[in-house]
Amino acid sequence: MFLGIRDLRFARGRFALMAVVIFLITLLVVLLSGLAAGLGNQSIAAVKNLGADHMAFSRPASGDKISYTASTATPAEQKKLAGRPGVDDAALIGVAMTKADHTSVSAFGVDPGGFAAPDGVHGRSIVVDADLAADQGWSDGDRVAINGTKFTVAGTKDDSYFNHQSVIWMDRSAWTKLPSAAGADGTVVALRTSGSFDAGAASATSGMDVVGHKDAVNAVGSYTSENGSLTLMQVILMAVSALVVGAFFTIWTIQRSGDLAVLKAMGAATKYLLKDALGQALLVLVIGGGLGALFAGGLGLLAAQVVPFIVTPMTTLVPLAVVVVLGMLGASAALHRISTVDPLTALGATR
């Protein structure tokens, strides 16, 4: 990388500008990645953390998709699914929007003692999301009004969100009395299954749509649209990164054709020049992208105090790696010009 390092020192301004561009693109990609993860978590955390690997929804009308807002389930359907081969446990869960002390929440009705019910849920005792309890100043033993009825806070549950609302876990017998429950016994049946479970056969015999964990998560209305939009933004930024890096190194290669011609005339192998060019591009990408990811991680930790933002290796290092890989693919666009430089033609053009 002798020539690459020399170029970096000689044209500091141009390479610094390129590194800043990579820094900004990586910063945006990582911030979007952390925001997408945070928003997604606030849509599906309660469903994701249920401990169920399958979910049964009432069969939607032709052309419609399964949805928590449109689904209903009954104890009879729960019992039928519980008797299916491979089903280890089945829990009837009700999901509805309501207000707790004038705060909008998602109410999850569960049967006490079931695998989906947090400890403390029974009768008029409820378990509330830990962040909601902190915001409202609720603690164990406090009384909270839900639909005009007083319930006692029996505990809190971390990371309990559904559709961007904090979740309150309550006895299903109390949940059925909520106006938003519309008289239903429940919304879905959550299943814990073993390897012998056949979702297709269960759907056929129960009259419900039994789906895996991924489809159950995608049935949350806000999750798919938000995640799709933010992912599209990330893809566009990464594509821009590849194009910008490719254009920069292509132009840079044209500008230094004379240097490349001299090196070839002196006997430098094309393979050496290609490795030198790729090493130079990798160095710029790692410096600019690494600083961008580091800065975005720091901003994300601060932003997480006020907005849903998650900082993990998946939301920082993975986007950085993708930006670097796509940048290298863009830089490889300049390789053809390097490999086809004619020493005699290039040297003659510099006279």
TrEMBL record:
Cell compartments where the protein resides: Cell membrane
Question: Which InterPro entries does this one have?
Answer: ABC-4/HrtB_transporter, ABC3_permease_C
Query: What keywords were assigned to this record?
Result: Cell membrane, Membrane, Transmembrane, Transmembrane helix, Transport
Q: Where is the ABC3 transporter permease C-terminal domain?
A: 235-342
Instruction: Report the transmembrane regions from the record.
Output: 232-254, 281-311, 317-335
Q: How does it sit in the membrane?
A: Multi-pass membrane protein
Please tell me where this protein is predominantly located: membrane
| One Pfam family per UniProt | FtsX
Domain of life here?
Bacteria
Identify the GO cellular component terms for this protein. Answer: plasma membrane
Which protein, by its recorded name, is this?
Putative ABC transport system permease protein
Q: What is the lineage of its organism?
A: Bacteria, Bacillati, Actinomycetota, Actinomycetes, Micrococcales
